[in-house]
Specification:
The protein is of the alpha/beta class and about 450 residues long. It has 16 helices and 16 strands. The structure holds 4'-deoxy-4'-aminopyridoxal-5'-phosphate. The site of 4'-deoxy-4'-aminopyridoxal-5'-phosphate has 14 residues, from helix 6.
C-alpha cells in the first residue's frame, strides 16, 4: 500500500468531503523550510496561506527550533492547576508589553475554538456574578466565524459549518455585518461613516439589556471570505458595548501578531476589548495553544473564598503547555528583535501592487482587497452586477487543484482566492507566487 492509500484507510481529514480524496489523494508532506513545503517526492509548494493562517515566521524556523529543543530536555508538560512554570510567566510578561491597554489576565487553552468557549463562559459568568442576571444572550456579526465547537458555532454565522447543528445551538442575536464590496449604502470602505452600523444600533436598542457580550472578528471576517471593514465600525461597536454594559470579545485568532500590519487588529481602531482570544500565530504555528485574555475587573469578579463558588471552573489538560509557551516566547522575541511587522509592511504593499498588476484587469476579478499581507481576490461572473459564481461550480476548488499542480498552496474560500503568507515572505517569493496564482486563475477562467 502507498502512504496515500494508508492515509485514506485510517484518516478522516478535517473539513473535507473524503470522497474528493479518491480522485485527489492527500499530499504527503515530508518537510518544510521558510514559506516552502516539500512532499515525499521532493516537489515544493509555496505555503502562502501559512498552513491555515498559523505559520507566522516560516516553517522550521531555526530560532524557534532552537528554543523548543532546549525546552524539550527540561520539561514537556505539567498540570497547570496549582502548578506553573517559568515559560508561562515569561510569556505573559512578553504579551503584556504589546497587548491593548488593560488586558492583564491570561487563561490558557489549546486551540482557537476552546479559547472562544472560555471567553463566552467567562463573559456570562462575569455578568451573573456582578448581579446582571438578565444578561444571558450573545450578539455576533453575520458572516462571523469563531470555530466549530458548539458554543463557537452558536456565535458564528456561516451555514456551511453550522446549518445541520442548528437544533443544538444556543440562540444568539445577529447584527448585520458590514459588507464593503457590496455596500448596501453605496459607500466606500476607505472614507465611509459606517452607515451600516445602524443595524447594530437597532439590535442594541432592542436586546442590549439581555445581552452579556458581543463577539466579533476585528476588521477582517476571515472565513467569510477575507471581508475587510473599517476601524470606525469597530470603534462604534466598542462604544456601543460600553453604553449598554455589554462586554466586547475580540476574536483576534486569525489576525493577531502582525497579520494586519499592526500587532493586533484592534490596534487599528485604538480600542481595548474586555476579552481577547489569541491563537494560531501565537506559537508561530508550532504548537496548538490559545489564550483568553481579560482585564483585572473581570478577573476580580471571580475572586473570593472557595465556598462562594465564584471560580472559573474551566480547564483543558494541555493548558499552559511548556513547549507551546516556549514557542510563543520565541515568536515574541523574533517579532521584536527582527522588527518583523514593520519590515512586512513594505512587502504587503509590494504584494498588493503585484496582484493588482496581474489580476485587477481580469474579467472575473471583482475586487482585490488587502489589510497587511492578507490580500483577497474576489472572483465574480460579472464585474458590474458583482454576482458570484454558483457554489456548486466549486470555482475556488478548481483553482486550488490547478495551483497545487503548479506548486502553490492556495485554499480559496468559495469564490475568494487569498494570500495570507508567513510575515517573512520576500519579494522574489511574492513575484513567483503571484505569477503561479494568476496562471491558475487564467487556466480555469480564461
Ligand atoms: N476564530 C477565528 C477568527 C478563526 O479564524 C478560527 C480558525 N480558523 C477559529 C476561531 C477557530 O480556531 P481553531 O481552528 O484553532 O479551533
Amino acid at each position: 500500500m502507498t502512504l496515500e492509500q494508508k492515509d485514506l484507510k485510517y484518516i478522516w481529514h478535517p473539513c473535507s468531503q473524503m470522497k474528493d480524496y479518491e480522485e485527489f489523494p492527500p499530499i504527503i508532506i515530508e518537510r518544510g523550510k521558510g514559506i516552502y513545503l516539500y512532499d515525499k517526492n521532493g516537489k515544493e509548494y509555496m505555503d502562502i496561506i501559512s498552513s491555515w493562517w498559523c505559520n507566522l515566521l516560516g516553517h522550521c524556523n531555526e530560532k524557534i527550533n532552537a528554543y523548543i529543543k532546549k525546552q524539550l530536555d527540561k520539561l514537556e508538560h505539567v498540570i497547570f492547576a496549582n502548578f506553573s512554570h517559568e515559560g508561562a510567566i515569561e510569556l505573559c510578561e512578553e504579551l503584556i508589553k504589546i497587548l491593548p491597554k488593560g488586558l492583564t489576565k491570561f487563561n490558557f487553552s489549546d486551540n482557537g475554538s476552546s479559547s472562544v468557549e472560555a471567553a463566552l463562559k467567562m463573559a456570562f459568568q462575569y455578568q451573573h456574578q456582578i448581579g446582571n442576571t438578565k444578561k444571558k444572550k450573545f450578539m455576533c456579526l453575520t458572516g462571523g466565524y469563531h470555530g466549530e465547537t458548539i458554543g463557537a458555532l452558536s456565535v458564528g454565522s456561516l451555514d456551511l459549518y453550522a446549518k445541520i447543528y442548528k437544533p443544538m445551538l444556543m440562540e444568539t442575536i445577529h447584527i448585520e455585518a458590514p459588507d464593503c464590496y457590496r455596500c448596501r449604502y453605496n459607500q466606500n470602505r476607505e472614507n465611509c461613516r459606517c452607515e451600516c452600523f445602524s443595524d447594530a444600533e437597532k439590535k442594541f436598542e432592542k436586546y442590549g439589556e439581555e445581552t452579556c457580550a458581543v463577539i466579533a472578528e476585528p476588521l477582517l471576517q476571515a472565513s467569510a471570505g477575507m471581508k475587510i471593514y473599517p476601524p470606525l465600525y469597530l470603534k462604534k461597536l466598542r462604544d456601543m458595548c460600553d453604553n449598554h454594559n455589554v462586554l466586547f470579545i475580540a476574536d483576534e485568532i486569525a489576525v493577531n501578531f502582525g497579520r494586519t500590519g499592526k500587532m493586533f487588529a484592534c490596534d487599528h481602531a485604538g480600542i481595548s476589548p474586555d476579552i481577547m482570544c489569541v491563537s494560531k500565530g501565537l506559537t508561530g504555528g508550532y504548537m496548538p495553544m490559545s489564550i483568553t485574555i481579560t482585564t483585572d475587573k473581570i478577573y476580580n469578579a471571580f475572586y473570593g473564598d472557595y465556598n462562594e463558588a465564584k471560580a472559573f471552573m474551566h480547564s483543558h489538560t494541555y493548558s499552559g503547555n511548556p513547549l507551546g509557551c516556549c514557542a510563543a516566547i520565541a515568536v515574541q522575541k523574533i517579532l521584536r528583535e527582527d522588527d518583523i511587522i514593520n519590515k512586512a509592511k513594505a512587502r504587503a504593499e509590494y504584494l498588493n501592487d503585484k496582484l493588482k498588476e496581474k489580476l485587477l484587469n481580469h474579467k472575473n476579478t471583482g475586487e482585490i482587497r488587502n489589510i497587511g499581507l492578507i490580500n483577497a481576490i474576489e472572483l465574480v461572473i460579472d464585474k458590474n452586477t458583482k454576482e458570484g459564481f454558483d457554489s456548486k461550480l466549486r470555482m475556488g476548488y478548481q483553482i486550488y487543484k490547478n495551483a497545487l499542480k503548479r506548486g502553490l498552496l492556495l485554499r480559496p474560500l468559495g469564490n475568494v482566492i487569498y494570500f495570507n503568507p508567513p510575515l517573512i515572505i520576500n519579494e522574489e517569493e511574492i513575484d513567483k507566487a503571484v505569477d503561479l496564482c494568476a496562471s491558475s486563475i487564467n487556466d480555469i477562467l480564461s
